Prior knowledge:
Blueprint: E1 2-7, E2 16-17, H1 29-39, E3 50-52, H2 56-65, E4 69-71, E5 86-87, H3 93-101, H4 114-128, E6 136-140, H5 142-153, E7 170-176, E8 179-184
Parallel strand pairs: 1-6, 3-4, 3-6
Antiparallel strand pairs: 1-7, 2-5, 7-8
Helix pairs in contact: 4-5
Amino acid sequence: MTIYLIRHTAVQALGLCYGHHDVPLAATFAAEAAQLSAKLPIAPTEGHRAFSSPAVRCLTLAAAIATNVTPDERLREMHFGTWENRLWNDLPPTETAPWMEDYVTLAPPSGETFGAVQQRAVDFLAELATDGEEPLLVFTHGGTIRALVCHCLDIPLRNAFQLRIDFASITKLQKQHGRWNLLTLNS
């Protein structure tokens, strides 16, 4: 089984905390989507199944590339609770400092932990792993991709943000003989 984890294109949200919050796509969307589609080694229109986070930024890209897209809530970015749609610089350091020290197990107020993001993404992956051998397209977010790569390669989740995941990039995972292999990261 081969899975293409595809991060959404650039957004217009400079300095904004926007995990679950829908933000507008950058003016470069059409060009980024075309470049991304050209990088995919499989033809999305050949009926390959595609899954997407329900966030508009992911669904819009998925619709531009694939024909059969299934939204899945487990592919969402981290929920930042009361921090959503606020500027990072405006958030109280008394809340952000402890979280930045341990985002794996601490949640923003009324939000979720990064560990919870990984668990729901891994649940999605486990369901896919029992569902055939065809290549799959998964349109999602940088944090979700990092969480999945950490899981598949047994990397401690606290090291996830050492992985750079660009907008409109592809990370390719393949499962063989019961193990996940990372074939490309951030291509």
